[in-house]
Amino acid sequence: MSFNWLGSQADTTKTVVLKPMITARLGRPAMRYLLTLLMLALFSEPAAVAQENSQKTILKKGDGAKDETNQALRILQQKKPEYLKLIAPLTDLTAPATSFDGPRATPLSPVKPLVKNATDKGMGPRIALKPSRKTASEESAASENSENAIEDTESSIDLAPAPLTLVEPEPLLDYLGTPMNVAELGELRDQIRRTLIYYYKRPEAVNSRSPWGVMHSLIGYGVDTNLQAGREQVNAIGWLCWNGNCRGQRLLRLSNGNLAVNVGPGVQGHTGQFLSMLAQSYVPSEFEIRIQGKSFTVDDLIAYEQATCRPRTELTFKLIGLSHYLPSDAEWVSNDGQKWSIARLIEEEIAQPVVGAACGGTHRLMGLTYAVKNRVDEGKPLDGEWKRAERFLEDFQKYTIGLQNPDGSFSTKWFERREARTDSQRRVQTTGHILEWLTCNLPEEHLTSPEIVKAAAYLSNLMYRERGTDWKIGPKGHAIHALNLYDQKVFNARVGMGGPRMDWNSVESLQR
Known about the structure:
mainly alpha; 17 helices; about 40% helix
C-alpha cells in the first residue's frame, strides 16, 4: 500500500536510502560534503524559528499521569453495561476459572513512598557503553535472560552510513526530519487503529498462555485487555492480580504470609516484571491483589520489589515500576540491609551494558526513560544520575535512528549494527520493542518526524498484512503496545475506553 502522506517528506527520507550508493560512487569525503549541503538546505530556518525550537523540552505529563491512572481505575472498577464483557461479574476466587471476579479498588490517594532508615551505600561499577561516554567507574557485564534470548544466526546486511556533522542548536534533534502535521496523518491513524482492533478482538486464552504470556498480552492494551476464560471474557489485570490460573501456573505466592512473586519459566522472566507491566498500564497502587484468599494491594508488590533489590543484578524492570509509583527522591533499605534509591537504580542500570541485555537492551532504555520522565513530571531538576540518564538516552536515540532500515523497520540486530533480515517474526520483535521505547522517550512533537512515522506505518502494516501469523506472544504484546502508545500520544486516543475505544469505531469499516 502506498502512503501519500509520505510524499511530502521524500527528500528527507531519501537522504537515508541513498547513503550507501553515494558512498560507493563518490567516496566518503564527497558524500559528507554533498549531504551536508542537502541537510542544511532541508533544515535551515529563520533565526526566530530556530530560537523558538531551541527552547523546546520534553513534554511533561503533569496531571496527565494522574488522569491516566484515574481513567484506568474507573475502567477496572466500573460495571456499566457497555463494560460487562470487559469487567466480567466474578466474585469468588475458589470458583471455577469461568467465574472469576476482579477486585474492586478503593478511591485514589497520593502514592506514599516507602522510605526507611539508611545504611551503608554500595554502588555498582560502571562501564563505557555503546554509544560510548566517559563514566565514573569500571566495566561490568550482565547477560541477557535466556528466556528472552534469540539466536542470531542469519547473515547480516551492513549498511552503516558514514557519520555526518551538522551544526544545529543543541536542543534540536538533528537526526530526525522535520515533524509532519498530524492532520496529514489520517491514513496512518486509521491503519494503526485497524491493526489494534483486529488483535483486540482476538484475546488470548488462560488455558493456553502461561502467566508470562498473559503479562505480555496485557501490556498491549493495558486495562482494556481481555482474556478468554472458558466461555467468558475477563479482565487480564484483574485475573493476574487475583492470581488466576494460567495454563496450570500462578504468578504469585505466599512466603511466610507475605506477598511474593514467582520467577522462572512461565512466570516472571525478570524480577520486577509484573510491577513494570502494571505501571505501564497505569494501574493504581491501591488496586487489590489476592493470593490464596489473602488480600494485598499493588503497594505490597512495590514493597516486595524494593526489599529484593540487589547490586550488580538486572534492575531494569524494578526501575520501570518503582520510577512510576514512587517519588524520584524515594529511599529505602532492602532486606539484606543495603540503602537504595531511584538514583542508585539509575546508576546500577547505566553501569550495565545495553547490547546483550533483555530484548536487545530496549527494556533497560525504557527503565531509564521512566526515571527521567518521572523526575521531569515532578518539576525537579535533571541533575546527578538523572542528567547522566538523559544524556545517555539522547545518545541512544541518535544511534538508533542511524541504524534504521530504508523501509522504516529498525535493525534486526537490535543495537549492535544495522541489519535487515526478512524474517517477519524477528522484524516484529525488534521494530516493536524499539518503536515502543522511542514513542515513550522522544519528545512528543518529534513523534511525527518522517523516521518515526515510517516505523509506525511499517509495523502496523506488517502486523495487519500478516495477521494470520501466530506471532510469539512477547514480541506481539510489545508491538501492540508500541502502536497503542503512538495512537495515544500522536492521535490523542484515550487510555481505558473499554476497548475497542470509542474513537476506534470510525475505522470499523476497514476490517476485512
